[in-house]
Automatic annotation (TrEMBL):
Name the UniProt record assigns to this protein: Preprotein translocase subunit SecA
InterPro entries: SEC_C_motif, SecA_Wing/Scaffold, SecA_Wing/Scaffold_sf
Name of the gene this protein is made from: secA
Domain SecA Wing/Scaffold, residue spans: 1-57
GO biological process, one term: protein import
Amino acid sequence: KWMDHIDAMDQLRNGISLRAYGQKDPLIEYKFEAFEAFQMMIESMKEDVVRYIFRVKVVRQPEERKTFENQGEEAEKKPVRVGKKIGRNDLCPCGSGKKYKKCCGRGVS
């Protein structure tokens, strides 16, 4: 629309010189007609905006639901241990003869 308006103003400028033959000031006529054309362009743009707004459709995307299969996979993930688990009351593997909870296991939850 804006480019069409610019083209129309160029054509108006080229044709406005003929108004001088009708005893009218071409500058005043150009200002008047250019302003009218600009107002028409603005009104046309406003109508287009309103038309587009009323045609907008809101589309909701369905939310992804977690399935029990996915939850099961998360529950199955466990840390991998290389050696045998040491109990708190077992003898410490360092060879001190103390219980693990009193020796190397101190501060380990």
